[in-house]
Amino acid sequence: SQEVVSEESEEESNGVNLMEFSDEILLHILSYVPCTDLVLNVRRTCRKLATLCLDKSLTHTVQLQKDYKVNKDKVKQLMRDIGKEIYQLNMAGCYWLPSSTIDHVTRCKNLVKLNLSGCHVTSLRLSKMLSTLQHLRSLAIDVNPGFDASQLSSECKATLSRVSELKQTLYTPSYGVVPCCTSLEKLLLYFEILDRSREGFMLSGQLMVGESNVPHYQNLRIFYARLAPGYVNQEVVRLYLAVLSDRTPENLHAFLISAPGSFAETGATKNLLDSMARNVRLDALQLPKAWINGSGLLQHLKFNNPFYFSFSRCTLSGGHLIQRVINGGKDLKSLTSLNLSGCVHCLAPESLLRKAEDDIDSSILESLVVSCCNLRHLNLSAAHHHSSESIGNHLCQLLSRLKHLLSLALPVCSITDVAASVEKPPTTPNLLPQTFGRKVRTGIQTYPRNSGDQANQKIESSVFWALMGSLRFLETLEIIGSSFSSAMPRNEPAIRNSLPPCVRAQSVGDSEVAAISQLTYLQSLTLAQLPNILTGSGLVNIGLRCQHLRTLSLANLGTMGKVVYMSALMDMLKHCKCLRDLRLEQPYFCAGAQFFQALSHCSSLQRLCIVSRSGTLQSDAVMSFMANCLEVIMCHMFMGESLTVCKNLQQSIVRSFQAERPALNVVIFPLLHEDLTEVIRDVPMRHLDEITLFKSRVAEEPPNLWW
After folding, report:
1. Number of domains, the chain
2. Where is the F-box domain positioned along the sequence (predicted)?
């Protein structure tokens, strides 16, 4: 017994005591702990931590965004303990907190930056809060139906007059607080106004009575507007732009408008663009496609040190891109983010006589790569970028020179080897010969457990394997079929039929997916419409090697009649310990006991979304999964089950887990039900925008646009 005691004491003397670390190291460790835990729990453990947890480096900026365990009482106690020490407070997306929680923000007298996007704030509460925040310079809020600017007090308007950065999400036609912000330098507008009310009445884009005040743009440096689908959003944004067309701010250096569909140019917007061409030099540009197509605008605009360009969905040809934007490679080393999503002719010299499926001109892409050598975010999705048979000029080979890339989006047909796509016919059941006599079994074999060796034999010599090997620090990758469209569009009924994949994409499958496993630092992966997935063996490789993976989105892999990769997916999930968001979109998906048992290994999972036409689910398996995975706060399932089954399961989940998980958001609904759009409109914008709706997110916005 004496020997055992001596051994234990020796281990204790040789062991490392956390409290013996320097304050600098401890502060760095504590910076990864949510502020609510630091202040309400960790600082109560010992005197040293009590002091460190209140260090200015930890209390200066408080992030409650995605802190799904925080509730009203915790916020109240947090503000009471360190409110005066907080200079930046981010509560974006805290949709589950009652509006009365905002009252406690008044304790933060020294606030300089405040983000309340996605929070419930009435105009009266906003007025009361802002009246006490005299140092505020940056504000983000939502403007909901019922907002009344006349209820803002003079003290509130005085605070707003000093605000230089404003982010405003509009759910109703309104100027919001923009007319009160007379010192604006950065204005971000998100238009989420629906064309119809819940009662079915058509809405108008006209502003409410008493909202004719003119915005003040004279000091504006950054103007950004993102529109959801709908004509009302277009009408309202034109009212915001009308003031800009009269007098363009001299210091404007970023002008960005993201508008889906057709957004026609008017006389006022043409005057605005002409004025910009004469008077300003831009660093960031994004315009609706109708404003660029067929015009010589890009030839006249002047750029300073551009860091972001988006020409999404434009018919801009590669020739115009090189001549008018890249300008022979001059002054483009500063460009870090480029969005060419849906630009079907951007890698071709001309667009007039060219078909979308024709081969690209590699010299244009080479000029782009050489000129923009510091690119960190590049989006080439939603187009057919087919490489020719010229040696060394494949798209993947040229992109491998961009060593600084952090995020990349490509169409499926762009990553295939030219020889493989020509030699290998599509592997579909329809191509099997019809014979008499003994039937031929065409089922899919179970994938090999040692899948790495088998896949590597084919792919290690391919251009895509080489590309993945050269982009070692890539964090976000999207490989999306050029004709893919999600079954869940924004404001329309679910799509029942999907377009077939590109012919060049028919050979892309398991071996290409295996190549992705080389990306050691991969955090977000999207794969959509890869037709030659036979077993999904490459997914297991990714699960084993990409240990930092946090977001995974898979859609329409392999044949549409059967989920051929289910076995591999379940094996993959057992290794994804850091996975937080999972989105699956696949017809006939069976969300049964085996799937949810495998998914339960993802101990960090927070959000799950499954979209499946004719898909099935097992209610008991879902309930067991929710009980085992304590971090899950979002469960969205749009399947082929009946409305009764969906409603009963949704109610059971809410009833069982809502009390323990204040942020819990559950939507289980038939995918093809006529009321789907009404259900979607109640989903918190954070979940809807980040996971429930499918879209390409690479270079969607300029980097570091807000916080």
Report:
1. 3
2. 15-62
In a domain, 696, yes or no: yes
637 part of a folded domain: yes
628 within some domain: yes
DSSP label of 532: B
What angle, rounded to 10 degrees, do the helices at 231-246 and 267-279 form?
A: 40
Q: Is residue 310 part of a domain?
A: no
Kindly state whether residues 675 and 605 are assigned to the same domain. yes
Residue 106 sits in the same domain as residue 160 = no
User: Measured at the alpha carbon of residue 308, what is the angle toward residues 518 and 464, in degrees to the nearest 5?
Assistant: 25
Q: Tell me: do 151 and 217 sit in the same domain.
A: yes
Measured over the CA atoms of residue 107, residue 112, residue 117 and residue 123, the dihedral's sign is: positive
In contact, 502 and 483? CB cutoff 8 Å: yes
Domain boundary among 215, 238, 260: 260
106 shares its domain with 189: no
Q: Which domain holds residue 651?
A: 583-706
What the block records as the tokens of 107 is 């304790």
255-311: pLDDT as tens digits: 999 999 889 888 888 889 999 999 999 999 999 998 987 667 888 889 989 999 999
Domain match, 129 and 254 both: yes
Q: What is the CA radius of gyration of the chain?
A: 27
The 3-class SS string of 120-149 reads: CCCHHHHHHHHCCCCCCCEEEEEECCCCCH
CA angle 516, 518, 520 (to 5 degrees): 110
Distance CA 283, CA 287 (A): 14
Nearest by Cα to 396 from 483, 516, 295, 495: 516
Confidence bin at 445 (pLDDT 50/70/90): very low
Judged against a pLDDT cut of 50, whether residue 546 lies above it is answered with yes
Question: Which tokens sit at 198?
Answer: 């819940």
- Between CA 512 and CA 143 the distance in angstroms is 46
The whole-angstrom separation of Cα 2 and Cα 12 is 15
Q: What is the pLDDT of residues 67-93, one digit of tens each?
A: 999 999 999 999 999 999 999 999 999
Per-residue pLDDT tens for 16-57? 788 889 999 999 999 999 999 999 999 999 999 999 999 999
Determine how many CB atoms are found less than 10 A away from the CB of residue 538.
Answer: 28
Residue whose structure tokens are 């003290």: 155
Q: How many angstroms separate the CA atoms of 281 and 529, rounded?
A: 41
Helices of type H across 41-122: 47-52, 56-59, 72-82
Element containing residue 609 per DSSP (H, E): strand 607-611
Element (H, E) at 324: none
Residue 440, Cβ density class (10 Å: 0-12 exposed, 13-18 middle, ≥19 buried): exposed
Instruction: Indicate whether 126 and 244 sit together in one domain.
Output: yes
Question: What are the φ/ψ torsions at residue 326 (nearest 5 degrees)?
Answer: -75, -30
Distance from C-alpha of 50 to C-alpha of 26, rounded to nearest angstrom: 12
Boundary-marking domain end, from 213, 243, 260? 260
Q: Answer yes or no: do 629 and 686 share one domain.
A: yes
pTM metric for this prediction? 0.92
| Cβ neighbour number for residue 168 with a 10 Å cutoff | 22
